[in-house]
Amino acid sequence: MEKYVINGGNKLYGRVKIQSAKNSVLPILAAAVLTDGKVRILNVPHITDVGNMVKILIRLGCKAEYSGEDILIDSSSANCFEIPSGLAHELRSSIFLLGSLISRFRMAKIAFPGGCDIGLRPVDLHLNGLKRLGVEITEKNGYILCKCEKLTGNEIMLDCPSVGATENIMLAAVKAEGATVIKNAAREPEIEDLQKFLNAIGAKVSGAGSGTVVIEGVKNLGSTDFQPMNDRIEAGTFLVAAAMCGGEVELERTSSENISSLLHKLRENGCNIHTKNDKIVLERSRRLMSVKSVETQPYPGFPTDLQAQITALLCICKGQSIVTENLFETRFKYVPELRKMGADITVINRSAFVRGVERFKGATVIAHDLRGGAALVLAGLAAEGRSEVLDISHIDRGYGSFEYKLRAIGGDIARVAI
Ligand code: EPZ
Asked: Where are the alpha helices (DSSP H) in 270-392?
């Protein structure tokens, strides 16, 4: 077990190198199972979710290993279509592998991923989409069993623009017979990145980002070296850190387009933000003003993965705000922890009602999930006095070298074994 010990109050100054996007690397690792070609994914962060996905690929018989900052995958020796329940529960995103395993083996078996720290996380849209491609699905003793004679392209309308369901269906459709059209598909930039990767190994995918994705089945796939997009959620987390602590922070290799909804809110708060090519500079000198409301929505709306971070910021702005979480049922678990630090915040149903206070007071708080845990770190950095954040393994799932990057721009934070 480890914790962060933070002494708050330092302004943040400097440049931050943003990691490759966790939510792009994970589906790409699943996609690598589709091909017998060699795949190298470049500059992959050493985070737990990626490590667990690599472990699953190895259990499936693939060769998969880190080589420095890259991951090398060779799935030609893959010989298993069952994902062990322990690893499936450890990593919800293993559900993406259904599409690849069915495409490769015509069979797949995975434990029901179930809910997690932020909500019920159903997979009905994944399964209904796969059924439309000809997959027979049965659920038995907590497992999802899939089999099919062959995969046949079809038109699929998603009830809601689910990121994971869009990705799973894309993977299953890559080598199906004929074309597949996914309507009401998720528009997240990570979907476009997956399309780019799939086409790099020889697939024929188009329309990602538009809401309608078209996959024309192909017979053979090959190799590629692939640089995933940057992690827009890590970038947003560092921008909010700078907004909360004050100072001036520059992000490298970050597309402002991918987090324009956050930049809009931060400018409304009173931050000075300049974007040039793939750099974003945020400068904050005076106390920030609240924004009336923040509503999380599917892309290009405000990202649910930045909801906790912006709520922490709003807790120390002048004025009142309402933050509404429209995607996940229980994504306010960090709120009682912020109240321990002096936040004036009340959650009613899916909305958090925030009254800004001057500053957080240092306290000992507990991380309950990945993004909520990151928000507590930001609150500690901006707080008066000393804070401790416990259960930081949640944060290690998605942020590589988090404390090193924060220290490099002036944050007083250390990882301590308990
Ligand atoms: C992806 O999760 C991300 N994870 C999440 O990031 C992110 O919060 C989410 O997309 C939304 O942007 C990865 O990419 C690995 P969804 P996913 O399917 O695919 C409902 C993080 O912190 N739904 O788009 O699971 C669901 O209940 C993580 O990095 C169904 O009803 O999200 C939710 O309300 C957290 N049936 C909504 O769709 C389904 O079959 C959005 O979920 C699937 C989803």
From this structure: 307-314, 335-340, 370-382
